[in-house]
Amino acid sequence: MTEKRPIAEGLFTWPSPQPALLASRCRQCGVAAFPVAESCMACSGQEVDVEELPRRGTLWTWTIQQFMPKPPYNSGETPETFQPYGVGYVELPGGVRVEGRLTENDPQKLRIGMAMDVVFDAYRRDPDGAEIVSYFFKPV
Amino acid sequence: MDVAIVGIGIHPFGRTPARSGLQQGAYAAREALKDAGVQWQDMQFAFGGSASSGNADALGNELGLTGIPFINVANGCATGGSSLIAAWHAIKSGEHDIGLVAGFDKHDRGAFNADPKALGLGDWYGEVGMMMTTQFFAMKIQKYMHDHGISANTLAKVAAKAFLNGSLNPNAWRRQPISETEIAGSMMINDPLTKFMFCSPAEGGVALVLCRADRARQYTDTPVYLKSAVLKSRRFGSFEVFAPSQALEQVDGPTVDAANAAFEMAGVGPGDMDVLQLQDTESGAEVMHMAENGFCEHGEQEHLLQSGATHIGGRMPVNTDGGCLANGEPIGASGLRQVYENVLQLRGQAGQHQMPGNPRLGYTHVYGAPGISAVTILQR
Question: Where is each ChsH2 C-terminal OB-fold domain found (chain A) (predicted)?
Answer without folding.
Answer: 51-121
